Amino acid sequence: MLALKRLLMSPLGSLLSISVIGIAFSLPAGIYGMLENLEAVAGQFSTTPQLSLFLKLNTSEEAVMDVKSRLEHHAGITTIQFISKENALQEFGQSTGLADIAKSFEQNPLPDAFVITASSVPSYQLDELQAELQKWPEIEHVQLDSAWAKRLEAMLGLGRLAVLMLSVLLSVALLVVTFNVIRLQILTMRDEIEVSKLVGATNGFIRRPFLYFGALQGAAGGAVALLITTLGTNLIDEQLKNLMHLYDINWQLYQLSLGDSLSLLLFSASLGWAGAWLSVESHLWQIEPR
Amino acid sequence: MISFSQVHKRYPNGFDALKNVSFALESGEMALITGHSGAGKTTLLKLIAAIERPTSGSIIVNGQNVGTLRSGAIPFLRRNLGLVFQDQKILFDRSVFDNVLLPLQISGFDARSSAARVRAALDKVRLLDKEKARPITLSGGEQQRLCVARAIVSRPSILIADEPTSNLDADYARDIMDMFKSFNQVGVTVLIATHDSELLGNAQQRVFTLRQGELAT
Ligand SMILES: Nc1ncnc2c1ncn2[C@@H]1O[C@H](COP(=O)(O)OP(=O)(O)O)[C@@H](O)[C@H]1O
Ligand SMILES: [Mg+2]
Fold first, then answer.
1. Band of the pLDDT at A120, cuts 50, 70, 90?
2. CATH number for the segment(s) A50-145
3. Global pTM?
């Protein structure tokens, strides 16, 4: 508890370094929280489980009706939209501005198609449904419309990488801050260290309070970071709730979980410990009784 | 017990501070080391506490060869030594009591018996009424006695003092010497370096004289 005493000995300095650590760490913690939110959004979109079924070109009208009724009775499917090949061709003509070309086809090259919404959410069940429908003889091809979600997923991956890089950089910053704070402490405590060695203090005995101090300071910085991110998300959440209320949407921002918070504290504490250790190792040997 | 055999100390700058020094001090003995300034007295005491290492020769303290002691063992050697050095290294940011307490904290004594020991040590140097005082408010003689109290609080078997009476007037000096004698009477081995020949006047102790790093016989 020598460490605690030293933390309180220079309250302004301690407060300063703790805030620096806290602010530095609230950045990646905040971005992490934002990513979690985006991920939740992405999850909602990718769980709008749409599939496109393209029938074989030579499918007769009766067969199409048969497929439709089978789809209607399928337990895993909620909505069905039929796009006849005529509609498809017309739309192709309109959307591309190549109506003349579309008309000039002797035979319609486009297939009849269904756009269906599956009732199930998890992607493995969508894959199962896709595989099942693919086996139907009238069906040429089943496409899962999740490309957009996949793109978002890739962006999130990029975001996660950014958080990781930021964390690494700021971790180095925390190491440096702790290193320097401990270095100054060692210098101001030079006499005490020297006397202690003279009366038989082991290096471990001298090192220990510095290590505890580093860990304590790191943990306090981590706590400040938690405070900042929690306050930040709550503030944004309030505003968001008002906005969402207008649209009648009930939407809760992601808050850092207990696990997240504990790992952040543990992480910043161990970084503080490591910084203190490096500092003690590089400075303590210089102080020997003369 | 302290024994030097053919000890040589050359400082990194090439200066030979001790040359071929051999002597033995039985446990329970008291001895003075005298010599002019620069004769090597401080160097000799530093070798005993492993603050400096000998260039050659062997130094045995309490059965351990101090010259070859690995650095991890040095703290435990020092816990058996009471050291009073020239630059007193009193910690001015804490009370007299806490200064004396430090060695006990370091060797892991429990708080209650520590307090009793600290008071006993302060009593022996007659500073008990100043335990709460800041060291800066003490006189030179009192500061010196504080250092003695810190050296004896862990009840070492060997007490080593470097010029403990320098810059004290004669009365204070005699006072301190009487204290060392009384420690010696209860069985502590005492080794004191001094250039103050007045202290030797009525000395019944052994006296080693150093001349330019050599022990005169
Ligand atoms: N660290 C050192 N490096 C070089 N020379 C030293 C060092 N310490 C002491 N000396 C020299 O060794 C000699 C003996 O010093 P010291 O043991 O302090 O003598 P004393 O205590 O008898 O006055 C002196 O000439 C001093 O200049
Ligand atoms: Mg000297």
1. low
2. 3.30.70.3040
3. 0.72
